[in-house]
Amino acid sequence: MSYRQARYDEPLIFELTGENDFCISCEEDVLVPEGMERRDLCLPEIPEREVVRHYTNLSQMNFGVDNGMYPLGSCTMKYNPKYADRLSALPTVTSVHPCQDEDSMQGALRLMHELEKALCAISGMDAVTLQPAAGAQGEFTGMLLAKAYHSAHGQERTEVIVPDSAHGTNPASAAMAGFTVIEVPSGPDGCVDLEALGAALSERTAAVMVTNPNTLGLFEKDITRLAELVHAAGALLYYDGANLNAIMGITSPGVMDFDIVHFNLHKTFATPHGGGGPGAGPVGVKEFLEPFLPTPRIINEEGRFSLDHERADSIGKVRSFFGNFAVLLRAYAYILAQGGDGLREVSQRAVLNSNYLKSKVIGAYDMPFAELRKHEFVVSAKRLAKEKGVHATDVAKALLDKGFMSPTIYFPSLVEEALMIEPTESESKETLDRYAQALLDIAEADPQEVKAAPLSTSISRVDEVYAAKELILSWRIYQRRKGPQ
Amino acid sequence: MSRARQTIYYDIGLGVNVIMALDRRMLEELGIGSVEELFSDIPQEVRIEGIPLPSGRTEMEVVRRVQGMLSSNVTAESAPCFLGGGVYNHFIPSAVNTIVSRSEFMTSYTPYQAEISQGMLQALFEYQSFISELTAMDAVNSSNYDWSTALGEAAMMCHRISPKKTFLVPEAMSYEKRSVLRSYVSGAGLNVVEYCYDPFTGELDIGDVKQKMSDDVCGIYVEVPNLFGIIDTQAPKLKDEFPDVPLVIGVNPLSLALLRPPGEYGADIVIGEGQPLGLPMNVGGPLLGIFACKMEHVRKMPGRIIGMTRDRDGRRAFCMTLQTREQHIRRSKATSNICTNEALMAVAVSAYLGIAGAKGLRSIARLNMRNAQKLMDRIDELDGFQAPLFEGAHFNEFVMRTPLRPEKLNKLLLRHGILGGIPMQRSVPRLTDHMLLAATEMTREDDVDRLIAVLREVPL
């Protein structure tokens, strides 16, 4: 199939000219204190029609999961059901202020309370906070919880252990919470090396952050032993929920004896990612950590919902108000639509798709570690790089030319020339076959052609070095310079 | 849509729809009889028997159920709303929603592959440019979660610029921000020290700032307008007084249509809440954390930054830049852990500012100021009420003293179909009988009449 993305020479909105036709006009004088008045404000003055055309044209130079397969590993880019768009546009969502009296927002409080319960059911945890705005913020919240828990027990534990295959947010979140991060190497099987973990654990360890299945798509088969080791050292076990799509209804962080877990609602629970956000990163905990959760907690008293702000052991707040409500609502609707059985089937199909696609590309690409994968798998373009000079990034760009989003590349770093592929349950066999064929064709193609890619996107290969050197970050800076010519 | 079409029954033998047949072919090609075999690596001792949730529902049922559940929410569409505190009931041109509903924007991920993501990258570059114009700052990131988390990140950035341990903040700050700030600085062990406000003007007490100033201060935070809605005329003096201390200014970006931009009075970092610029209230989220800084500090800034560049053929192009600050490269040494942000909200803000233009934005800001002034005047005429509490000039909100406890007054107002104001006590403990009221361009004469009619009946 041939693909061609729109290629407009779309000006910057600041370069458009016209006549402002905005509907609100007020020339009345208002009293701004002396020395606080604004002298000038340079914004585009153009009719609404031209603004709509501008952004419509820009949107056509963008690629979403509604355009085609988007198998970015660890990002779980599944189809975003449209009923969620409709529900999130209701005035009973958009026109509700977060500081309204409890009595005037019972519907919103009930929905959040029910979502908390549903996430508990899915994860096997006892209590959930919906406040974190993203997965990374969930991790940060989890680290603050671990710190508060240990300090409530009179212990100052200063270290957090993460495997070398962890998402970059794990060490960054732990460091932000003030912990020293200890990275442990993976074993020869791609899983956490229990001996290395055992050696790293001590009375200084506050928590161990684990992704299961891990970023290679491998299930940590010794998870029970791992949890025992962590708990024997008095540390807490943290579950990075980025890969939850692999295991729903089959196992759960709760039954694996994790103490804290974050969910990525914009991954597993099908809320759209919006070109970078918004997301939502609720955090679930076992009962003994519930007193430390952020405030306010939603209390259910026989169907009347209220907010409890006064909780002595709480870590406080990590974000204002309740979190990203409109995202929470979408995830709630998705869980209702799928039901318990449907979510289990989601995971089954995601794992089937992943293993099927993997079986089609093995041979042309090398597969480090065991073959059985969960919802995602990592192959290496090392041989292509060595024999033909075609690197993972070249493979990624060539995929764009075929109308597919590329996999996540160069991650995890323990695999050279890594291509991390997560097809999700949303794709059909036909689409998976086309994606596999595209990967095989690229492996066979003339290396010069591959390195020339992409040719069918709105621009050819981008010069990142120039961007970092020039640092043109705004219209102001651009105007001061001549601009790249 | 029927349930059978949404799900798959490939290994339990139900149904004969197309999806089932496809899945069976995949199983056959893998040479396995059941999908269960793909889970053989998960030990029995951690297996569960499904999820204890009800069965799935059709779209029709889901929509009905969620709509029904939310129908008990009182909305600013049906009740006059005087709530503010960072989130306001503003008018949003319909075209903003049209633009952010483009599924090429909405259903895309972070633009890692620049060549196929130029639309989002340019839109975010334009967002950075809009905020840069409003604030008079050069460098802007492509969003934080909200104002309060932007404040937390700003404090940490000050600590990176000037590695000291005390961060000065106003006593007049919302408890939401104070609490989030404490969470963000707890890891680095920063002390958050509050300076007082002037009890007459409501502006910052510069004498007290001087008193709290020491060699250990890594940054000063000020809001303009502040928690009380006051356009703080003391804020521009801080950089002259303390030229070497990083200055963080928090703004309502709408006010910048009329107010001197912080970049002109020495701000090192400007943060704020983007919600007033075209975002729905959404029960408090998603919001948009604005984050801008001086160019000299850009390598210490958190978050994604979009830069202009060129492609291989010399065409203008955009890509994420300065990524070596970020968690996916720098891991525990990153400037922040932020990954997912509020990109789509940033596009909404750009669309809003594009549609309003400078002329429209100034008009809206004037209407906000004027309507707040009218509301204050009407309330102040009532016996037992005082508005505003402070003498400073206000933007679109103000503190009112009430003879009835704020929580009780809100219940009374709600019974009359009015969404009252925010009680102040949680933010400033001594303001026990005070609430924050806001007006916007949406506040009608009739709304004010209704509010006054209820206040008039409050027993003194």
Overview of this protein structure:
The complex is a heterodimer of chains A (485) and B (460). Chain A has 485 residues and is an alpha/beta fold. Chain A has 2 domains: 83-338, Type I PLP-dependent aspartate aminotransferase-like (Major domain) (Aspartate Aminotransferase, domain 2, 3-Layer(aba) Sandwich), CATH 3.40.640.10; 347-465, Aspartate Aminotransferase, domain 1. Chain A contains 15 helices and 12 strands. Chain A has a 7-stranded mixed beta sheet, sandwiched between helices. Chain A is globular, with a radius of gyration of 25 Å. Chain B is α/β, with parallel strands linked by helices and 460 residues long. Chain B has 3 domains: 3-59, no CATH class; 94-351, Aspartate Aminotransferase, domain 2, CATH 3.40.640; 357-456, Aspartate Aminotransferase, domain 1 (Alpha-Beta Complex). Chain B has 14 helices and 12 strands. In chain B, the strands form 3 sheets. In chain B, strands 1-7-6-5-4-2-3 form a 7-stranded mixed beta sheet, with helices on both faces. Chain B has a 3-stranded antiparallel beta sheet with strand order 10-12-11, covered by helices on one side. A two-stranded antiparallel sheet of chain B has the order 8-9. In chain B, helix 4 (94-100) runs antiparallel to helix 12 (343-380) and helix 6 packs parallel to helix 12 (343-380). Chain B is globular and about 85 Å long. The N and C termini of chain B lie far apart (59 Å).
